[in-house]
Design goal:
The chain is an alpha+beta fold. The chain has two helices and seven strands. The strands form two sheets. Strands 5-2-4-3-7 form a five-stranded antiparallel β-sheet. Strands 1-6 form a two-stranded antiparallel ribbon. α1 crosses α2.
Length: 170
């Protein structure tokens, strides 16, 4: 689906709007008009007044003791990722994005490659996502490391891990 292009001056986020943005990219002044906080990364330029936020609802009976975040990718990657994952949790989709529930904090020390979008608390732009995959067990989570590696592979970005400092006792 094509995105509508707007001049920078027309992109003014409502004050009460929360749209997920790529973690690791932040402005100490908070979201700025026309900044990354007013668009959904990788989806093109959208007028944020068209977007409202929603929290993905976990189906009844699934245990969410680890908290819930979500990782979204453009729909063109959805089937490829879903078919290659060894374990799958809840997956939601709308016409433009697919979202995987992951445990809270799955972005710690990781920068999810664009066009992927990491959504803390599973709060995403409200485009009427629907549950398209229900896990077999009681866990709603997709393991984040295999998901991260697949997203990196499909986007052509090398995975990046922080390395612990190595010291010598000599």
């Amino acid at each position: 689906m094509a995105s509508r292009m707007l001049p920078r001056s027309a992109r003014k986020p409502p004050e009460n709007l929360t749209v997920p943005r790529q973690r690791g990219i932040s402005d100490p002044r908070g979201p700025q008009p026309g900044g990354i906080g007013s668009i959904s990364p990788g989806s093109g330029t959208l007028d944020s007044a068209e977007l409202r936020a929603t929290r993905l609802a976990v189906p009844v009976g699934l245990h969410t003791g680890l908290g819930c975040d979500a990782v979204g990718v453009p729909a063109r990657f959805g089937f490829k990722i879903l078919s290659r994952l060894p374990a799958k949790g809840c997956v939601y989709a709308d016409s433009d994005w697919w979202w995987w529930l992951v445990p809270a904090g799955s972005d710690l020390d990781l920068t999810w490659p664009l066009p992927a979008c990491y959504a803390p608390d599973a709060e995403i732009p409200d485009r009427a996502p629907r549950l398209i995959h229900h896990p077999d067990g009681i866990s709603p989570y997709t393991p984040p490391i295999p998901l991260y590696l697949l997203v990196c592979q499909l986007t052509g970005i090398a995975p990046a891990w922080p390395t612990p400092p190595v010291g010598s006792a000599l």
